[in-house]
Write a structure and sequence with these properties.
By secondary structure, the chain is mainly α. The protein is built from 2 helices and no strands. Helix content is 91%, strand content 0%. α1 (3-26) runs antiparallel to α2 (29-57). It starts with a helix and ends with a helix.
């Protein structure tokens, strides 16, 4: 995967995490657990992409 594609995926994941955080902040208590689980997965994917990008730059 090229650096450009990794960077695009990373940017998309950053936006998704931000949008999820806003949804969690506005969600009722009974929906927060599911959203937080999704958030945890997206953050892990974002972190993997960030590490992949950092590895490709070196």
């Amino acid at each position: 995967m090229s650096i450009r594609l990794i960077a695009q995926d990373l940017y998309r994941l950053i936006r998704e995490v931000e949008a999820l955080q806003q949804r969690i902040d506005a969600a009722p208590e009974n929906q927060k657990a599911a959203l937080e689980d999704t958030m945890r997965k997206k953050k892990a994917e974002r972190d993997r992409m960030r590490r992949a990008l950092d590895g490709r730059k070196e």
